[in-house]
Amino acid sequence: MPSTMWGCVLLFTFFLTAYGSVSDKLESDFFDNPEITLQLSHSFDNPDAGVLNFVPRGSITIRNFRGPRFTSSQKDLTLNDLNQLKKIASEDGYYFLKTTIKTPSGEQSYRSFTHAKSLLDSGLSDIVRVNLNPNGDIISVSYAMARNDFYSVPHHLGSNRPPPQKFNTTILVHHGETGPMPDTAPYLEKLEHERLAKERGEDPRDNRSFFAKYWMYIVPIALLVLLSGASNPEEGGR
Amino acid sequence: MILTLKLLGCIFLACFLGCTSALHEDQAGKFDWHQKFIGPIKFVVNDPNQPKRILLGASNNVIGAVHGNTGNILYRHLLEPAGKLLYFGVYEEKQCVAVSLLPENLVKVRLFGITTGVLTDEWAETVVTATHATESNGKVYVIDASEGALPDVSVTVLDGQTANTNKYRLGISRGANVLCDLSGRYLICAQDKVVSVLNLMDGSVRNHQEGSTVSYISTSGSGEISAVNLGNSALSSTYIILENQKAGPELLPVKVSPQPGLILSQTKTEDRTLLCITRLESSHSIQLNVYNRNGEQADPKPVKVSSDVPLLSLAIAKVYHYNSGYGLVAFTTDATLIATRADSSVASGDAQIEWSRQEALSSVLAVEMVDYPSEVGPSWNPYQASLDVISSFIARVKYEVETIVSGESLYSSAEDRFGLRKVIVFLTAAGKVVGMDSTTGSIIYTFVLPDFSMFSDSTAQLYIQRPAKYTPLKPQATVIYRSLSSKGAMLLAFDPVEGKPLDEPKSYPAILQTQMIGHAGEETKFIKPILLLDQTGTVHTYPAQVKDVPNSYFFVAHKGSSPKLEGYDIKYMDNKLKGRLLWDLNLGQSEIIGVHAKIQSERVHSQGRVLPDRSVSYKYMNPNLAVVVTAEHEAGNINLYLVDAVSGALIHSFWHKKCRGPVHVVHSEHWLVYSLFNEKNRRYEINSVELYEGQKQSNSTAFSSFAAPPVQPIIVKQSFIYPAAIQHMTHTRTEKGITNKDILLALPTGGVMELPRIVLQPRLTQQHYTQQIQDEDGVIHSLPYVPELPMPADMVINYNQSVRRVDGIKTWPTRLESTCLVLVYGNGK
């Protein structure tokens, strides 16, 4: 019985590895990628107020940048918030998102925004994109909408479709790459190859077939053979 | 192409059709011109053997000689661009000496043959630091009178073999606001009312008390008479310094009027040396008075030099004696070198300013080009289309009358059907705007901007608000600069063809960012509005009647030790436009070394690239994409960020380890080419990046930074080795964007290399390259990747017209597709 249980655990672990989107983590990842929590807070644009008031929206914990694997815990939008969002959308205002990340060196926050109307049109399906440098440190957080057809796609409730209240957040991780470098190795290899081939007396560019290359020697010999062969029966006949 | 080169005042213009068409010998100079300048002149001396030869030294480490009759350059040497010229003068009759201070406090002394300008000798010495230098009896005196060391002054004497340093103490107190200058063998330092004079030969010091605060010092320079004029904006006093073995240098007052603005110089006649005192009498005349070495007037009647062009104020005025008359060479504060004709100077007669040189063109801050207003060219005129028949007719008649009145030279002739002739508008560091005809290089107008200073990052802006195609409406150009007195921003609109102001200068509070909206409508008479975001977040517009600016965003890059990018939107509230912070992006501990956006008005002909399998890869052409380059100096890294300037999204980033700048970036269409120096492999590299949307286009009509889901471009990149250093890099432009683009590279050898962009296109490497691909896909697109770029000599577009110290290359499309004007300018810093 205990052995069966271990088998189940092992099998489950296998699935975790295969489908990285399952939000759990393996022991080894803990050391490679210590988990990072994005504290999200949002603000509904108020043209009269000079300073924006950010209220907590929830948090997203990224367990592994590969995948990426993350867990999201966000509060639903209250009806009051939703009404305010609709009001802003009608005035073509903005929805602001502040992402705060605690790092060993201190707290870092990133401010981003979208049009309130786009947020409603997306049905609160948004994308938070985390940009990393080659060392794996976060350099910026970008915010975008995942779709724009929430109201236009057909739904079984028709136009009475309830407005969205649940955030459906996707995390994308973008790894900064080291810039391109001149790729000299294959080119030098090719030059070396050509040099060696020349020393051996072969021209590597001449890839014609054997016959195509030496027909001028083969044809006269063949003719000679044919001609001499043609004269032989005469002799034999004599 | 028009290539204007500002190197030590050097402008080169070339016009050529098609790509990489080398010039034939008989075409040299037909489509191009080249102008040379010296720079901000600091030293003016005459060849003692031939006073007509005027030797000039400029503070940007350039020396040269001009002819006294014509002002033509006889010879010119561009010394190290990073250096500073401390002294330039005659050395033992037959030679001239230039003393330059280079980085790391290396003092370099060079001797040139005075008639030919050939370098005859040079030596170098490292000093602690140096502020002044002079030469006497074959020895060079390098003086450190820097603010940190005062009142101690160290004098290093160099004679080619040895260097001896002596320290002296002046009679002034420690601290700031000390003015120092050299007059012959004496160092004069003034602080408040105290004047301390040091004899460099024996180290004797004498202090002197002035009646009022000294705010400027002007001296007679090197020579037998050491004279000095001290004063402030109201009063001045002039002294001749006499040698006194016991009590130190003595100040002998000269009886001249105590007016401010006296400029001293000295000249040698056959038998004696004379002190000349020059004063700007009115904006059109200069007065010269001559004194002997005892401070007595030698010639009772002053000489008057009149000028046709108004003069602002003089910085240097050098009087010389030639053919028993006096000649004058002067350098004005608005960087113009003016002079009388050496041959026409007569004994006591009054003289006339005969030639002038616009040395302001040696440091250009911004360049734009405008077409001449012309009937030929675009047949559809949006302005005339918006008028009814009668007003259109009246406007046409008015325009024709104006054409006749103002003369034909202002308007392009019917021969210029291809729009090759333009007005080049230069905004210079001296605060002068210069208009130039692009076909001949002749100056059409100049004017000085009132209350001019540069912004803190040594820039000022120049915009073309209305191009010339809306005749009879006049074209409009606008300069934005910092006010010297109020430290706020100033804006002046003018007609770029005639050089006449179109409006009063406007002043604004200190600003954070400016931008010009890319489209213009009838309501502003086709003037593209300029928006200025000030530091309190208020947005000002020019013209002021613009009230609503939908879909406009500001992108601000804060430089400094922890740079930050910010985005603002613009909203109309409480009767004014307000900028509100939308997003920010912190770039960490680094320095921003460049922000490169695309040229908004540029057209892209093709939306995609056809691949060998006949499918299309669509280009990612985000007009809001900006490239921000940062340098981490400690780690030696160069980072590039591709930022959407509207949404603030980071599209991509490139990180280069162990690399350093300067990073030259060319950003156009869907691609990016940048150069940097790889410290590890010690070579220059050119990197090429292309961005594609993929096989499907997200939106075929317009690009939106707010698209949902966001467009993530596919990045294709490759790197090449370039076998030479690069001083500047830009791309060619054509009217419709059909012609393949070329990259123009300014090389330190003085050549401007034209490299087809297609050579830099990321391509297959040798391993993946097959014969079949070449057969399928023509020749050029499928050449295999070769890491080193070629440098064929026939791709140098400026043949033997070398242009060194290039600061910028400006390209401009003409009405003839495949032809573009190239202007190369340099020699600023």
Layout of helices and strands, plus pairs?
The complex is a heterodimer of chains A (238) and B (829).
Chain A: H1 2-18, H2 27-32, E1 36-44, E2 55-64, E3 69-74, H3 79-90, E4 94-103, E5 106-115, H4 116-121, E6 125-132, E7 138-145, E8 168-175, E9 177-178, H5 185-199, H6 210-237
Parallel strand pairs in A: 6-8
Antiparallel strand pairs in A: 1-2, 1-4, 2-3, 4-5, 6-7
Chain B: E1 10-17, E2 33-36, E3 41-46, E4 53-58, E5 62-67, E6 73-78, E7 84-91, E8 95-102, E9 106-113, E10 119-126, E11 132-136, E12 139-144, E13 152-158, E14 163-169, E15 178-183, E16 186-191, E17 194-199, E18 205-209, E19 216-219, E20 227-231, E21 236-242, E22 250-253, E23 262-268, E24 273-282, E25 285-291, E26 297-306, E27 314-322, E28 325-332, E29 336-340, E30 351-358, E31 364-371, H1 382-385, H2 389-406, E32 422-428, E33 432-437, E34 443-448, E35 452-453, E36 461-466, E37 476-483, E38 489-494, E39 506-508, E40 511-516, E41 530-534, E42 538-542, E43 553-558, E44 564-573, E45 576-586, E46 591-597, E47 608-610, E48 616-619, E49 625-632, E50 637-644, E51 650-656, E52 659-668, E53 671-678, E54 683-694, E55 714-722, E56 728-731, E57 742-746, E58 752-756, H3 771-776, E59 806-813, E60 819-826
Parallel strand pairs in B: 26-30
Antiparallel strand pairs in B: 1-2, 1-60, 3-4, 4-5, 5-6, 7-8, 8-9, 9-10, 11-12, 12-13, 13-14, 15-16, 16-17, 17-18, 19-20, 20-21, 21-22, 23-24, 24-25, 25-26, 27-28, 28-29, 29-30, 31-32, 32-33, 33-34, 35-37, 36-37, 37-38, 38-39, 40-41, 41-42, 42-45, 43-44, 44-45, 46-49, 47-48, 48-54, 49-50, 50-51, ...
Family (chain B): Belongs to the EMC1 family.
InterPro entries (chain B): Beta-prop_EMC1_1st, EMC1, EMC1_C, Quinoprotein_ADH-like_sf
Domain ER membrane protein complex subunit 1 C-terminal (chain B): 668-826
